[in-house]
Design brief:
alpha/beta; Rossmann fold; 2 domains; 15 helices; 12 strands; about 40% helix; about 15% strand
C-alpha cells in the first residue's frame, strides 16, 4: 500500500506539472493549492488523506469548479522529513506559484516552513497538527491550524482520569518533539496539583527510532495502571502490540486522536486494542450507530464511486473528506477573488460552519483573533471493531 500511495503522489505531481499552462495564464484560470504529506515513511498511513482530497477536487472540477475556476491540487510526498518538506514547499511556492499551502501534515514538517511561508505571505491553512504555535495570529498571521490543539486534548484525557480513576498511577510515553511536549503539557495542566503524585514514570522516543520496546518495559516496571501514549503512526501499533507482548494491562490506555485509525491499530492486532481510549470530533463512519446517517451514507456513496479500491476502515479517508469540505467552503466564500489576502480573510471569518461527518453540535468557527476552527472533542473507546463514543462533547475549559 505504501508503494502504491507513493506512486500515486508522484503521478499526481508529474501529471499536474506536465499539464500546467504558463504561470501568468494559470493565475487567472485555476486555483493552485499545494500540500505535503507522508505518502512514504513511518507515517505513510496518512497518505490516503491526500488521495481522497484529490478525488473530491476532481469531482468539483468535473462539475464546473469553483466559480468557473478549476482546482489544481499538487500534493507531494515529504516522507515526514522536514528537509524534504522545505524542498517541496519552496518548489510549490516559487516554481508552481500556488495560491496557498493547505492541509500539510506534521508538527516538525510544518515547523520547517512556518517562517518561510509567513515571510512570503503565503497562506498555510488548516495545518494537520495540533501544536499550539499554529494559532498565533499576531506573530504568524498566515498560518492556521486544522485540528483541536494537542494541549486541549491532553487536558480532556486528564480530566477523564480524575473523574473515573482518581487514584491512578500514570505512565507517559511521548514523542520527543513539539507534538509530545504539547500533549504532556496539557495533560499535566488537566491533572493540576495532582500531576506530581499521579505521574509515576515518563519515557520519550525519537520519531526516527525503530522501536519503543525498551521504553514500554521501563514504564511497566513503574507499577503504573494508566498509560498515556503520545504516539503516532507505526509507534501506536508498536505501543498496543508491545504492552500485550509484555503482559501489561493498564486499566486505561490513551492514544491521540490522530493515532486512532483502524489502519494504524490493525498491525498490532485489533484484539489487543480493545478498551483503548481516544477522542474525536468526527463521526466514526464504521460505527453502526451512524449507519443511517445521511452524511455517512453520502460519504460511502462517494467512496464507492470515486475510490472503489479504498479500505474505508481507514478513517483517514473520512478525515480527508471532511478537511476537503472545509477547504471548499473557504474557496466558495472567496467569490471571484482568489488573492492570498482574501483567502486568509475568508478562512479567518468562519461562522458556525457545519461540515459533513462532524459530530452533532460541532461546528467550525474562526475570527481574525481566534484561528482555532475546532475546540470540542468527544471521548471514545475501541470495542475491537469500531470506536464507540463516551459521554458528551467536551473542551478543556
Amino acid at each position: 500500500m505504501n508503494g502504491l500511495l507513493k506512486g500515486f503522489a508522484v503521478l499526481i505531481a508529474a501529471g499536474l506539472c506536465a499539464a500546467s499552462p504558463a504561470l501568468g495564464q494559470a493565475a487567472k484560470e485555476d486555483i493552485r493549492i499545494g500540500q505535503t504529506l507522508p505518502y512514504s515513511g513511518p507515517l505513510s498511513a496518512f497518505g490516503v488523506i491526500g488521495r481522497v482530497e484529490q478525488a473530491i477536487f476532481d469531482k468539483v472540477n468535473d462539475e464546473g469548479g469553483i466559480n468557473g475556476r478549476k482546482i489544481r491540487f499538487m500534493s507531494l510526498d515529504d516522507g515526514y522529513s522536514p528537509p524534504k518538506t522545505v524542498e517541496h514547499t519552496r518548489k510549490l511556492v516559487e516554481g508552481d506559484e500556488v495560491a496557498l499551502m493547505w492541509g500539510s501534515l506534521g508538527t516538525a514538517t510544518n515547523g520547517a516552513v512556518h517562517r518561510y511561508l509567513n515571510s512570503r505571505k503565503v497562506p498555510q491553512l488548516f495545518v494537520l497538527s495540533g501544536a499550539n504555535k499554529w494559532s498565533d495570529p499576531k506573530k504568524f498571521p498566515w498560518t492556521m491550524p486544522g485540528m483541536v490543539t494537542y494541549e486541549s486534548e491532553g487536558v480532556i484525557y486528564a480530566k477523564h482520569i480524575l473523574k473515573h480513576k482518581p487514584d491512578a498511577k500514570i505512565a507517559i510515553l511521548s514523542q520527543h518533539d513539539d507534538l509530545g511536549r504539547d500533549y504532556v503539557a496539557g495533560f499535566r495542566r488537566g491533572l493540576g496539583a495532582k500531576a506530581a503524585t499521579m505521574i509515576v514514570a515518563e519515557q520519550t522516543y525519537e520519531p526516527t527510532s525503530p522501536v519503543i520496546s525498551s521504553q514500554l518495559v521501563a514504564l511497566k516496571a513503574s507499577g503504573a495502571n494508566v498509560l498515556f501514549g503520545v504516539t503516532v503512526g507505526k509507534f501506536t501499533a508498536q505501543l498496543v502490540r508491545g504492552i500485550a507482548e509484555i503482559a501489561w494491562k493498564p486499566d486505561m490506555t490513551f492514544v491521540p486522536t490522530s493515532a486512532s485509525s483502524i489502519a494504524i491499530l490493525e498491525p498490532a492486532g485489533l484484539d489487543n486494542a480493545i478498551g483503548l481510549l481516544s477522542s474525536s470530533n468526527q463521526k466514526d463512519v464504521n460505527d453502526p450507530q451512524w449507519a443511517n446517517d445521511p452524511d455517512v451514507q453520502e460519504y460511502f456513496a462517494f467512496m464507492k464511486k470515486h475510490l472503489p479500491d479504498a479500505d474505508t476502515r481507514n478513517t483517514n479517508y473520512a478525515a480527508g473528506y471532511m478537511y476537503a469540505s472545509l477547504m471548499l467552503h473557504v474557496l466558495r466564500a472567496c467569490g471571484d477573488d482568489f488573492s492570498r489576502e482574501n483567502i486568509m480573510r475568508q478562512a479567518t471569518s468562519l461562522r458556525d460552519v457545519k461540515l459533513p461527518l462532524l459530530l452533532p453540535g460541532v461546528v467550525a468557527s474562526t475570527a481574525p483573533d481566534d484561528y482555532l476552527p475546532f475546540q470540542q472533542l468527544r471521548l471514545r473507546r475501541f470495542d475491537g471493531k469500531s470506536w464507540v463514543g463516551i459521554g458528551e462533547l467536551v473542551n478543556d475549559d
